[in-house]
Specification:
Length: 435
């Protein structure tokens, strides 16, 4: 039996503590907040999208960063295992659109409640209001050498903010990233990892809304669009002479989006952000092209528009679009079309109509920035996976030190995938600690 300390009582930390205790170790879970799973409480708008029912092939397609690193952890503890765990500990789940899994109760607190019962059953000790500020080490290699290969550090405990030292045979860092700092994700884990000799991939907010240059976006604040398609392109100065239609988008998606006072948000936009957040943080700009009618090809849409125009031939252009767009969107589309809104429909030329069709299918938006960590669902960046053993989650630099969850340089799209990464890596770390 090993003495195991888990630092961080979020999704990954709770799972790591449970798995370690279930494996027969003596476990102490340290959490600086007043309760476990503080970030879990706000995921899925308070409902907690715990995982996704996607099969493994589809699941890995939704992992954006370092998917191959996660093979061992996900195969060892996958979405089905997570659902079984919750059911076993009194939190029945249901599956909704897109394979998203939620507690039947729609209360995220029931997920944390299941973990509290599981930890209690496995005799894992939990200490709240307890902040770790340092790691304790012992040298295990040959004395008198500076060669890291001959002189490897090993973890032997942690130091608390009150100066207390706690001994351990293994320490699992599951401190989260930088997103939603109000929940305690303040980057402390990266500082602890640095003490052990680890580097940190620069962190940026991901699954985050976009700030948009075009002023007309503000006029649409609060408007939600469903069943639309976006294409996302990174601006590359060397290719400015090439139209976007000839380039390959870095992201293409279909779903729901929302206009805000600063730009755009919603599930579709959040997913798109994961493919460009790092580049935007480096100063790059991105272009979004919004297809308002993706179910219709250009020719089909033109026929639909022509039919509408024929039925409203004596109306002003601005009054003939009610069948195509929400009322809030109509004035903006008229403005962007360049067609006089008072112009009679029968006076609109074929060329004007065809240009309008292209606008409907390629509404341009210029991304100038992403919102900050306070609005980001997850953090991109963190502990480099090359410094961690993917089969055990143990550090390759410091013996007895393990990582789990958002601290690692791993991330996925929305839909329950990121929480599953936390469950899977936490479970693997907890079960791979030797006796």
């Amino acid at each position: 039996m090993s003495q195991v300390i888990v630092v961080g009582g979020g999704a990954a930390g709770m799972m790591a503590a449970y798995a370690s205790a279930a494996s027969g170790h003596q476990v102490l879970l340290l959490e600086k907040n007043e309760k476990l799973g503080k970030k879990v409480y706000i995921t899925g708008k308070g409902r907690c999208n715990v995982t996704n029912t996607a099969d493994r092939e589809q699941f890995f397609q939704n992992i954006v960063t370092n998917s191959k690193f996660l093979y061992s952890s996900i195969y060892q503890f996958d979405n089905q295992a997570m659902m079984s765990f919750l059911e076993e500990y009194g939190c029945p789940v249901k599956t909704e659109r897109g394979g998203r899994v939620f507690p039947v109760s729609d209360h995220a607190s029931d997920v944390t409640g299941a973990f509290c019962r599981a930890l209690q059953e496995m005799y894992a000790e939990v200490r709240l209001h307890t902040e770790v500020t340092g790691l304790l080490f012992q040298e295990t290699g040959r004395e008198g050498t500076s060669d890291p290969a001959q002189k490897r550090r090993r973890i032997c405990g942690v130091r608390l903010s009150n100066g207390e030292k706690l001994e351990a045979d293994a320490v699992i860092l599951a401190c989260g990233g930088l997103s939603y700092p109000s929940t305690g994700s303040d980057g402390t884990g990266y500082q602890l990892a640095s003490q052990a000799g680890h580097s940190v991939v620069p962190c940026v907010p991901a699954l985050v809304p976009f700030e948009i240059k075009e002023r007309w976006c503000k006029k649409l604040q609060g408007l939600s669009l469903k069943n639309v398609e976006i294409k996302l392109f990174l601006e590359e100065p060397r290719k400015e002479d090439r139209p976007h239609a000839e380039r390959k988008p870095i992201y293409r998606g279909f779903g729901e989006m929302l206009f805000t006072h600063f730009g755009v948000s919603g599930p579709l936009i959040l997913s798109a952000s994961s493919y460009c957040s790092k580049r935007i943080a480096e100063g790059a700009h991105a272009r979004l092209f919004l297809n308002l009618k993706p179910a219709m090809e250009e020719e089909t849409l033109d026929k639909r528009l022509l039919r509408d125009f024929e039925e409203n031939s004596h109306k002003a252009f601005k009054n003939a679009l009610g069948g195509l767009f929400p009322s809030k969107l109509i004035p903006v589309m008229v403005e962007l079309s360049g067609i006089d809104g008072e112009k009679k429909v029968y006076e609109i030329t074929r060329q004007e109509r065809l240009s309008f069709v292209k606008l409907i299918r390629n509404l341009p938006l210029t991304v100038t920035a992403t919102r900050g960590f306070a609005e980001a669902v997850i953090t991109q960046g963190g502990i480099p996976v090359m410094e961690v053993n993917p089969s055990t989650m143990e550090s390759k630099i410091c013996g007895g030190l393990y990582f789990a969850g958002e601290m690692l340089d791993i991330d996925a799209l929305t839909g329950g995938y990121n929480l599953q990464l936390a469950w899977s890596t936490g479970h693997l770390a907890g079960t791979c600690i030797p006796f």
